Amino acid sequence: MIKLTNVTKYYPSKLGNQYILKNLSFEIPSNHNIAILGRNGAGKSTLFRLLASSEYPNKGSIESSHNISWPVALATGIHPQMTGRENTRFIGRVNGVSDLDEYELSVRDFAELGQKYDLPVKTYSSGMRSRLAFACCMTVGFDIYLIDEATSVGDPKFKRKAKAALLDKSKQANVIMVSHDTEEIRQFCDSAIIIHKGQLEFYNDLEYAIEEYEKL
Ligand SMILES: Nc1ncnc2c1ncn2[C@@H]1O[C@H](COP(=O)(O)OP(=O)(O)OP(=O)(O)O)[C@@H](O)[C@H]1O
């Protein structure tokens, strides 16, 4: 379970503080693969950044006993001056991977960067950067994977591979997924949370959630 207690999140702007969540208490259950449904600007990516602790609430707290990934495929934390291999080892170390040599080899094989694995990431295309980030994230054994439109990574061949890896993960671990593709959501998720006007609502029944969401 991920427990949000009195969470307020806003971004200051010229129009005043833009509130995404206001004094929200909510429990995200474990043992579900959950789709986050919400209109553009509803706060899905912001919620992900809060769950991944890459941003903090302005007020309140978020607690979980689970090991939660950063949003898969976001190249957050990838350092442009370092090579793919150096980044991999660094990310592995930060995330407490015990066997860094094995981790490095698995990421290298998954990302399929060839000799570029030993060149600085600043020389990579954006697709190559995303592949490295995806491989680094998938290869760490997280309890919960945050998947933000992640199956759009790379070229068609890599997309198929990424999707297969995610499906595999969704059987052993849990996924929380943001996607505007309903078919993809049906493939990965069994339940949903609708985020609307700063409120979250959990639906055990995915099809019912999709119906309710389409009414918004
Ligand atoms: N760093 C930021 N500074 C200021 N405002 C921000 C920032 N990040 C997001 N916002 C605002 O917060 C709101 C929620 O944004 P967010 O990206 O979380 O929405 P979303 O549901 O993921 O949208 P989409 O479906 O379009 O990706 C939007 O109004 C957005 O403009």
Quick description:
This is ABC transporter ATP-binding protein. With 216 residues, the chain is of the alpha/beta class. Helix content is 37%, strand content 24%.
Your description of this structure?
This protein is of the alpha/beta class and 216 residues long. It has 2 domains: 2-69 and 178-215, Rossmann fold; 78-141, no CATH class. Helices cover 37% and strands 24% of the residues. The chain has 7 helices and 8 strands, in the order βββαβαααβαβαββα. The strands form 2 sheets. The chain has a 5-stranded mixed beta sheet with strand order 5-6-3-7-8, sandwiched between helices. Strands 2-1-4 form a 3-stranded antiparallel beta sheet, with helices on one face. The longest helix has 17 residues, at 156-172. The two termini are 27 Å apart. The protein binds adenosine-5'-triphosphate (ATP).
